[in-house]
UniProtKB/TrEMBL annotation:
<keyword id="KW-1003">Cell membrane</keyword>
<keyword id="KW-0812">Transmembrane</keyword>
<keyword id="KW-0433">Leucine-rich repeat</keyword>
<comment type="similarity">
    <text>Belongs to the RLP family.</text>
</comment>
<dbReference type="Pfam" id="PF13855">
    <property type="entry name" value="LRR_8"/>
</dbReference>
<dbReference type="GO" id="GO:0005886">
    <property type="term" value="C:plasma membrane"/>
</dbReference>
<dbReference type="InterPro" id="IPR001611">
    <property type="entry name" value="Leu-rich_rpt"/>
</dbReference>
<keyword id="KW-0677">Repeat</keyword>
<keyword id="KW-0472">Membrane</keyword>
<keyword id="KW-0325">Glycoprotein</keyword>
<protein>
    <submittedName>
        <fullName>Uncharacterized protein</fullName>
    </submittedName>
</protein>
<dbReference type="InterPro" id="IPR032675">
    <property type="entry name" value="LRR_dom_sf"/>
</dbReference>
<keyword id="KW-1133">Transmembrane helix</keyword>
<keyword id="KW-0675">Receptor</keyword>
Length: 68
């Protein structure tokens, strides 16, 4: 329902658990900031489908895996 969303800033919100792979459905996303939370697990490889994504910040979390 949020396919037109271009910028999403969820930093500093004490979010926990894995990054949902469903974020890859936000096909027009240009900037995603998930920094300074308590996210864990692997960074979903589905996020490589976000071809417009120019800014991606997941610093200060407990995430693993490559960012490609």
């Amino acid at each position: 329902m949020l396919k037109a969303l271009q910028f999403l800033n969820l930093s500093n919100n004490f979010l926990s658990g894995p990054i949902p792979s469903s974020l890859a459905n936000l096909s027009n996303l240009q900037a995603l900031d998930l920094s300074r939370n308590k996210l864990s697990g692997e960074i979903p490889q589905e996020l490589v489908q976000l071809t417009f994504l120019g800014f991606f910040n997941v610093s200060h979390n407990q995430l693993t895996g490559p960012i490609r």
